[in-house]
Amino acid sequence: MANNDEIDDDSPYRVHSRREIISLLNNMLEKNQLLSLLIKGGDESIITSILEIDEAANALIIDAAPSASLNENIVTSNRIGFEALYNNIRITFTADKAYKVEYQNRPALKVGIPASLVRLQRREYFRIATPIAKPLRCTFRITQPDGSFITIITLLNNISGGGVGITDEKKILPTTTGVIYEDCQLELADNTLVSVKLQIRDCKEFKMATGKTVNRFGCEFINLSRAVEAAVQRFITKLEREQNAKASGML
Q1: Which residues partner with 218 through β-bridges?
Q2: Distance (Å, rounded) from C-alpha 96 to C-alpha 42?
Q3: Which of 22, 57, 178, 228 has the smallest set of CB atoms within 10 Å of its CB?
Q4: pLDDT of 28-77, one tens digit each?
Q5: Which string of DSSP letters, residue by residue, matches 42-109?
């Protein structure tokens, strides 16, 4: 699962031309393109859209979050990520800071026009958060040296065609990167389970608001079957539709 930071400055996927960046952002504005705004490394996200582009002030005005607490979390963040799927192309960029403003007598946020952005045509890199109200699980079945096995249940944070982000609340899953787990069960929705092979790509300790620490993992799918890949893509599309409907007031 590539993110904006993993794309080198000289990568052909990274756009530096200010004219091209503003043109793309204007197109997204005109089509009322929805964006995911992510903070805390993607652990919190909202759906937003561009309201205005002020070239002279080097600023983007975007929709505020639906709650005051979320807006406070955003403006106190030192790094804010944005992701969108525009014409089947994944667009990502970051901002160092956001500020509370008013736009047409309603709350809004202001961030700087990005100096660069990443444009990827592979849909598998588009990551989407999974529902918080109904947490989904990713279960690891790990064989021990004596032939027995243990089962470790983690919570699914986000998913893409390339992998998943998970939380291990009990901090049982080994944190060694590069390890491949052959026997994992991924819960997609409506009691749908798929078997996947996962490789641990990164692990970070995260402190929750309660003070409890958990481990957050980024995992990559290894050799997905066509049937499972299709199921994952259907699930991502379903989540996108639900989140877009919710953002537009239809849910």
Answers
A1: 165, 202
A2: 15
A3: 178
A4: 999 988 898 988 877 788 889 999 999 999 999 999 998 999 999 999 99
A5: GTEEEEEEEEEEETTTTEEEEEPPSSHHHHHHHHT-S-EEEEEEETTEEEEEEES--EEEEETTEEEE
CA distance 152 to 142: 8
Percent of the chain, pLDDT > 70?
Answer: 89
Q: Report the C-alpha gap between 82 and 91 in whole angstroms.
A: 8
Instruction: Report the distance separating Cα 241 and Cα 246, nearest Å.
Output: 8
Question: pLDDT tens digit string along 178-234?
Answer: 999 999 999 997 778 999 999 999 999 998 888 899 999 999 999 988 889 888 888
Give tens-digit pLDDT for 92-113: 999 999 999 999 999 999 999 9
| Residue 235 burial class via C-beta count within 10 angstroms: exposed 0-12, middle 13-18, buried 19 and up | buried
DSSP 173: S
- As a whole number of angstroms, the distance between CA 22 and CA 207 comes to 37
Q: What tokens were used for 89?
A: 């192309």
Q: Is 0.85 topped by the overall pTM? A: no
Cβ–Cβ < 8 Å for 95, 82: yes
User: What does the pLDDT read at residue 3?
Assistant: 46
